Backbone:
């Protein structure tokens, strides 16, 4: 196979040499298509309604995906962003330059074509070639002779080949763009202002995650890739931007699986004078509107399940649901050893969990998440798990926090935001102590500059972080996050 590919490359390099000798630029600067492949078909349909057999001369372009010689005629297929169309080069209709060039073309080359659109006797929309222009010479063959790229690792490592070979991947890229457009439209309708916050930060705070480190030579200091946008967006609220959000990349030094990628896209939003109940309504309305506008219905298929995104979503109290599903009451099991023992009795492996918060996170993921198929909010978390959330008015050991789950995946995390700077400092200090005691576990960090901002006063605020990649997975019925991220991180071969 490798020797065959090497022979193909040699042949193409020889053609490249011939092109250069003949003064034909194999990589010209431009070509101006007037019609893409879909517009060509639409044009043909329009002229046929008028009783005409072929259109005026048009300009189109794309990658050659097939070449078929039939006597004195040559059929080619070109593929562009929206589809494919056939070309027909007859010996008596092409100019001399095209006759000379066409023998040097290969599958994979980019070509521009000039000629009218017509329909063949086999009813195939076709561009009659008057002139062909080589736009880019391909030196390597397309995968598996272009008939579809199947190897998963190759698909992810060489996404450009995946996009050429698999039309459904191109559709995912376009639909992801539509989903994010609808998200921005919803937020604009709700009066939110979109902002950008730093990616390189001195303190990787605002979430529980291990960060990536880097070094800035000019500043002579260590910096980190952000793990959250939260603390900078809250600074905006302190400054008087009452409804603020950001869509951006986050970076967490964590494992890779079907639901996790070390760099991923989120939307975080913060709204003054709102609490977590207001945010819950916003989240269910946001998802509902996006799903309906993209899919035309609130009910969509995901794997074996039909999901209904129509608001309102189910709301479950965390403590009550844990008691029902596991028999464990975290109010009673309020120390590490007791909780460990009860979780072990429930058949949960607790060997890698060291802290009470870590155990609780494991308990939720084992006993609750797999059964949360329909869009559901879990509400009212223990304070120890939520260092940035405001305590409940009814129980100081519980915070006003919810997580949203769909198809067993967490898709959002939200709080009534803690705006008491003294309490926030105390909680950050506790996180720092816990991080020293349990360095293997993910902990938040104390950000002094954020605390100074908070000391200037932040109004009551509701905030949420939504995983965009998982949102796209759900709406487009994709089981792996690597299908919806164009260039996912992969292990070294």
Residues:
């Amino acid at each position: 196979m490798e020797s065959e590919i090497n022979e193909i490359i040699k042949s193409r390099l020889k053609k490249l040499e011939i092109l250069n000798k003949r003064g034909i630029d194999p990589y010209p600067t431009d070509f101006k298509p007037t019609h893409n492949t879909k517009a060509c078909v639409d044009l043909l349909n329009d002229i046929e309604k008028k009783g005409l057999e072929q259109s005026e001369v048009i300009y189109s372009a794309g990658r050659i995906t097939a070449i078929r010689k039939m006597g004195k005629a040559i059929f080619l297929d070109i593929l562009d962003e929206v589809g494919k169309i056939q070309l027909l080069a007859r010996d008596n209709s092409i100019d001399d330059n095209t006759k000379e060039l066409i023998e040097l073309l290969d599958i994979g080359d980019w070509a521009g074509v000039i000629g009218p659109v017509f329909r063949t006797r086999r009813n195939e929309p076709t561009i009659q070639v008057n002139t062909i222009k080589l736009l880019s010479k391909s030196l390597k063959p397309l995968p598996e002779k272009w008939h579809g790229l199947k190897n998963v690792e190759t698909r992810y490592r060489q996404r450009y080949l995946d996009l050429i070979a698999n039309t459904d991947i191109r559709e995912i890229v376009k639909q992801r763009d539509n989903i994010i457009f609808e998200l921005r439209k919803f937020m604009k309708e709700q009066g939110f202002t979109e902002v950008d916050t730093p990616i390189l930060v001195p303190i990787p705070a605002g979430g529980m995650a291990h960060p990536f480190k880097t070094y800035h030579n000019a500043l002579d200091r260590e910096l980190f890739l952000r793990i959250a946008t939260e603390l900078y967006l809250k600074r905006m609220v302190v400054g008087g931007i009452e409804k603020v959000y950001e869509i951006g990349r986050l970076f967490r030094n964590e494992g890779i699986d079907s639901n996790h990628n070390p760099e991923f896209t989120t939307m975080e939003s913060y709204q003054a004078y709102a609490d977590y109940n207001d945010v819950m309504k916003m989240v269910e309305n946001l998802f509902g509107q996006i799903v309906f506008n993209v899919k035309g219905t609130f009910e969509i298929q995901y794997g074996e399940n039909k999901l209904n995104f129509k608001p309102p979503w189910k709301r479950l109290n965390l403590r009550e649901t844990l008691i029902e599903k596991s028999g464990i009451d975290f109010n009673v099991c309020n120390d590490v050893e007791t909780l460990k023992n009860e979780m072990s009795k429930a058949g949960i492996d607790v060997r890698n969990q060291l802290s009470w918060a870590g155990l609780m996170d494991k308990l939720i993921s084992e006993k609750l998440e797999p059964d949360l198929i329909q869009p559901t909010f879990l509400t009212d978390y223990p304070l120890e798990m939520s260092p940035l959330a405001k305590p409940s008015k009814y129980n100081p050991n519980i915070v006003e926090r919810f997580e949203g789950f769909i198809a067993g995946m967490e898709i959002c995390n939200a709080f009534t935001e803690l705006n008491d700077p003294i309490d926030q400092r105390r909680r950050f200090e506790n996180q720092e102590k816990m991080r020293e005691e349990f360095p293997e576990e993910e902990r938040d960090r104390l950000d002094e500059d954020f605390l100074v901002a908070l000391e200037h006063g932040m109004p009551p605020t509701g905030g949420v972080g939504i995983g965009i990649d998982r949102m796209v997975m759900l709406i487009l019925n994709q089981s792996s996050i690597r299908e919806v991220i164009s260039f996912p991180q992969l292990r070294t071969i």
About this structure: The radius of gyration is 29 Å.
